[in-house]
Amino acid sequence: MNINFLLNGTLKVVNICPGEMLLDTLRKLDILSVRRGCDTTSCGVCTVLLDNKPIPSCSFLSVRADGHAVTTVEGIPEEAEKLAKCFGEEGADQCGFCNPAFSLTAYAMKQEKIVFDEQTIKDYLVGNLCRCTGYLSQEKALRKYLGVDQ
Amino acid sequence: MKTVQTIQPSVDGKGLMMGRKGYTDDYKEPGSLIIKILRSPYAHAKIKQIDSSKASPLPGVRMILTAADFPRIPFTRAGQGYPEPSPHDKFVLDETLRYVGDEVLAVVAESEEVAEKALSLIRVDYEVLEPILDFETALDHPVLIHPEPEIKEMFPIGFDPKRNLAASYQMEVGEVIKELAACDTIVKSRFFTQAQAHVMMEPHAVNARIDYQNRLVIYSSTQTPFHIRRIISQALEIPISQIRVIKPRVGGGFGGKQAIHGEMFAAFVTWKTKQPSTLVYTRKEVFSSTYTRHPMRLDLTLGAMKDGTLKAIDCQVLSDTGAYGEHALTVFMVTGSKVLPLYNKVSAVRFGGHVVYTNHTPAGAFRGYGAIQGNFALESAIDMLAKKLKMDPLKLREMNMMKEGETSPIFAIMGEGTAGTAMIMDTCKLEECIARGKALIGWEDKYPRFQETKTTVRAVGMALAMQGSGIPLIDMGSATIKLNDDGFYNLLVGATEIGQGSDTVLSQIAAEVLETTLDKIIIYSSDTDLTPFDVGAYASSTTYVSGNAVLKAAKALKAKMIDKAAQLLEVESDSLVFDGTMFQDLKTGKSISLTDFSNQITYSKQQEQLSATASYVGHKSPPPFMAGFVEIEIDKQTCELSIEHYVSVVDCGTPINLKLAQGQVEGAIVQGLGMALTENVKESSQGKLLTGDLLSYTIPTRKEIKRLTTEFVSSYEKSGPYGAKSVGEVGIDTPPAALANAIENALGVRITSLPLTPEKIFFAMKEKRSNNE
After folding, report:
1. Is the pLDDT of residue B250 over 90?
2. pLDDT tens track for B112-171
3. Taking CB atoms and an 8 Å cutoff, what residues of chain A touch B672?
């Protein structure tokens, strides 16, 4: 079957199989920043934005993206670069496998008009697991990116 | 120019954040054959018959590979120096299956869907054998896990498969029994540590193709590309010259990618069919079919005099290597060699025991291997001794611990799989680590407990740790550096960047020698065709061993550049100085810029490609040391524990990159907290994995991590590059003991088995109450 969706602002018409997950559809489209870390929506590595809200693409049927806007990190290069600078200053980037997903979640968070206190940040990003950093350097970098660095 | 010991953003962070292609699965060829493994549903079984009559005719099924398709050559999956100190006890496929998840066969198909369909249509008739699932009963059990005659040890490691023994070891300095008999106080306790899973974010992945020279080219998410090349060649009888292993960006390893996993299948399929192939493990396969940390039982005895003088340590260990013996002996030896020297003033020390086979998921390399298990036992026991002696545990440690300029006889006796190397501690800042950590946690005000309410209590606890910096006289690192036109450099290293920041740290070392900026150093790591040999990323070796190789190579290139510039300028090289951008002769005043020099020698005058290659093998393994302090709060009703603050004060020599070093420590601390509190690979009574996903196996999330303070004490290891020792592993060692000690300080109960769950605390308190009644 064919679906239509906006991928990073460009209309895509894609032939998918029933039961195909958005992660697989995106990787077939050579969007390699979207990755599989698990199959149980536990790790957050496959996060993309659907109409600007983070979703786990490993467990999201591609057919449900029909008629929606999908954003991957390739679609927000300026924001990713800003966050990368903050990560670099804090030594928060290690293996990098989860970084595009973190970047998208951070960007989505920035779009929401909420108070970025420590608890909000932890709640918002709790689904983005990281095994490398111990988290706090990421959060420090994120506060810089959000402009709420203490 | 100053690039080391400063805050330098990593050389690759930006590209990775932007989502650039880089990881193994990003490089698979279009149209690759898909490999899927059928795995054993039984902990111990023999394949009686495989019926693939329904699967084979499926359109798109290309091969169904069974044991008969592979040469019967025993090998070890462990990626270690060769010959390996691990038993060669694994076949690519075998008719006997030794754990739930062991490989039965491999399906090769044109698509994922067809491969999965084929797997579901294959019927295997098994003869179910009695498994050994309790490692304490494995030794001399009537069931034999490895009866096959072909398996072997490469040199004596205490391997005795007829006793289910993968390895065994025994050492003694002085006379432990005699010393213990003369002691005023004895602490004797049994400790248990569990299997922990690595949970690197990128699952294991491999893909292969044949290039236009008909060679086998493999991309692998590995920590050890050169070992992978050797093991594939030996086990599949493919000439090593025909294999190229490329390690692209790796999404975390922690030891889990030190061994060979799916590479064997992709290599075989592509070599046979000449078609590209790919194999990516599911998260469940990563859990069930790679390997875990070795579970251990540790019997620890300490003997001391009334004044706190520690006289003897005895540590007898039983280690569970599961179905195969990867790193069986080396992990075991580290349990002694990188733990017991902490208290070097004892008159006698004894260490030994067995590493047994069971029908569990194999155990293998994992950050802090052996050391975290040994540290939990020793550093718990030290606190227990302090309680018995009514001494401050810090004072007891300070009295007995290793100090700068001292040594331990253990260094010479115990290496990793072989004898060790004697060494003096040129740097050991444990006293400073303790003093600073004490202040940062507020020990004086908080020890042993504080802020006690009816329902909650806060407490502090601590532990010391040490590690190593590579394996002396075994681990080799190499680097090639070349000067390009316009005055920038290529740095080619076999050292394996897996997320720990080695590409950045090694670039910094080269930039420092060549007095240039990081953007002028273009690093390329780990490709067996293009980069010089390096054992890979393990044993805390990269900064120290590979870093020293980079230091040597960069110095050699600099010397060649000065000689060449002297020729070009027609001056003596002795009086020519190079400041990173200009060569200037102090006698004649003649000068040339690096840009002009490199352009001229490339294109017009006295043309020559300048490059240098150097290798480094450590003659010692200077340990990093640290003190870890924790503040916890326990809810006395639910026995739930929260980590309020973890303080790490580390002596890793002088860090090359402060922020990356901090990242190594904090990442390791949190991984160690996971091991201490929640992480536990669980199996059913039949050996089936119960924790095969991230819902049932919980690693720390950001919610549990509230406050980490990480500092480095001033230290300069003169044998290390710019004063550096290693920092990759030491951080993981202290959390289990520091937390167990804090729990005792809070509640007066001692938990001796990991993880430290609320249930264990609850039952220990219940027992304490009933003992008091």
Report:
1. yes
2. 999 999 999 999 999 999 999 999 999 999 999 999 999 999 999 999 999 999 999 999
3. none
Residue B184 lies inside a defined structural domain of this protein: no
Alpha carbon distance B528, B533 (integer Å) = 7
| Average per-residue pLDDT for chain B | 97
Minimal-distance CA residue of chain B relative to A86: B9
Closest chain B residue to A106, measured at CA: B17
Task: Name the minimum distance, in Å, from the CA of A148 to any CA of chain B.
Answer: 18
B675 and B533 within one domain: no
In angstroms, what CA-CA distances link B258 with B21, B261, B334, B471, B702? Answer: 23, 9, 17, 15, 27
Is B666 in the same domain as B730?
A: yes
| Cβ pair B203:A83 closer than 8 A | no
Does A126 contact B283 at a Cβ distance shorter than 8 Å?
A: no
- In this structure, are residues B34 and B60 in contact, taking their beta carbons and an 8 Å threshold? no
Contact between A118 and A149 under an 8 Å Cβ cutoff? The reply is no
| DSSP category for residue B543 | I
**What is the average per-residue pLDDT within B10-29?**
96
* Contact list, B199 vs chain A (CB under 8 Å): 131
Check which CATH number belongs to the domain holding A53 and give it: 3.10.20.30
Query: pLDDT category, B6, cuts 50, 70, 90?
Result: confident
Cβ atoms within 10 A of the Cβ of B79, count?
30
Are both A39 and A81 inside the same structural domain? no
- The percent of residues above 90 in pLDDT, for chain B, comes to 98
| Shared-domain flag, residues B725 and B638 | yes
For the packed helices A118-125 and A99-111, what is the interaxial angle rounded to 10 degrees? 130
Q: Which amino acid is located at B772 in the chain?
A: N
Q: Could you give phi then psi for residue B208, rounded to 5 degrees?
A: -140, 155
User: Which residues span the domain enclosing B547?
Assistant: 476-617
Q: What is the CATH number of the domain that holds B76?
A: 3.90.1170.50
A97 with B202: Cβ contact below 8 A: yes
| Global pTM exceeds 0.80 | yes
Point out the domain boundary residue: A59, A74, A89.
A74
Tokens of B615: 């290798």
Nearest to B734 by CA among B414, B399, B397: B397
Do the Cβ atoms of B501 and A94 come within 8 Å?
yes
CATH assignment at residue A100: 1.10.150.120
From B252, B280, B308, the end of a domain falls on B280
Within this chain, do residues B394 and B358 fall inside the same structural domain, yes or no? yes
Distance from A30 to chain B by nearest Cα, in Å?
A: 9
pLDDT at B416: 86
The ipTM assigned to this model is: 0.98
Specify the pairing of strand A10-15 against strand A2-7. antiparallel
Interchain proximity B201–A87, CB inside 8 Å = no
B257 and B268: one domain? Answer: yes
What's the pLDDT score for residue B547? 98
The predicted structure's pLDDT at residue A113:
79
Q: Check whether residue B605 and residue B632 sit in a common domain.
A: no
- Tell which of A23, A48, A74 closes a domain: A74
The total number of structural domains in chain A stands at 2
Residues B217 and B305 in one domain: no
Six token digits for residue B502:
């080695």
Asked whether residue B175 is domain-assigned, the answer is no
Q: Which of B24, B201, B695, B704 to mutate to test the interface with A (most CBs of A within 10 A)?
A: B201
Q: How many distinct structural domains can be found in chain B?
A: 3
With tokens 């109409």, the residue in question is A51
Whether residue B694 and residue A33 make contact (CB cut-off 8 A), yes or no, is: no
